[in-house]
Amino acid sequence: MAQRRRLGFLMALLVALSVSATGCSVVGKVKTAVHNVEGNKATIDSFTQNLQSRANAPFEATYATTGSAPATIVYAVDRPAVASPSTRRRRDPTRPTCR
Fold first, then answer.
1. In a 3-state reduction of DSSP, which class is residue 72?
2. How many Å apart are CA 32 and CA 29, to the nearest integer?
3. Alpha helices for the chain (secondary structure H)
4. CA distance 47 to 52
5. pTM for the whole thing?
6. Is the dihedral of CA 37, 40, 44, 50 positive or negative?
7. Is the pLDDT of residue 82 over 70?
8. How confident is the prediction for the chain on average, in pLDDT?
9. SS3 state of residue 48
10. Selection from 77, 38, 71 nearest residue 57 by Cα
11. Backbone angles phi, psi at 48, to 5 degrees
12. What angle do CA 71, 72, 73 make, to 5 degrees?
């Protein structure tokens, strides 16, 4: 009977050690994932801030396709040719619009 009790205790100890070792691994992976997400968020925030500060800046992007007939596509955008907000005539909200 003592042999069975000792074997049960050793099995319980082995299970407890296995669970704790696995738990540490999971916690480490979760911490790594959180760190990666925070880093990615910082990168996206920086990109968005630069994009907003250069909203009317011209740009050019080159894309290379793959497949049986690869091609290169160049997409270019220039500044919009509209008047600045200070020179546009604003609508008087008190006047009705004609349609």
1. strand
2. 5
3. 2-53
4. 9
5. 0.32
6. positive
7. no
8. 75
9. helix
10. 77
11. -65, -40
12. 115
Q: Give Cβ neighbours of residue 58 (< 8 Å, ≥ 6 apart).
A: 76, 77, 78, 79
DSSP 63: E
Cα separation, 23 vs 15, whole angstroms: 12
Rounded average pLDDT over 52-58:
67
How far is it, in rounded angstroms, from Cα 66 to Cα 60? 20
Measure the CA–CA gap between 95 and 97, rounded to whole angstroms. 6
Total residue count of the chain as it appears in this document: 99
Name the pLDDT band for 90 (thresholds 50, 70, 90): low
pLDDT at residue 35 tops 80: yes
Indicate the residue type of 59.
Answer: F
Structure tokens at 66: 């793959």
pLDDT higher than threshold 80 for residue 57? no
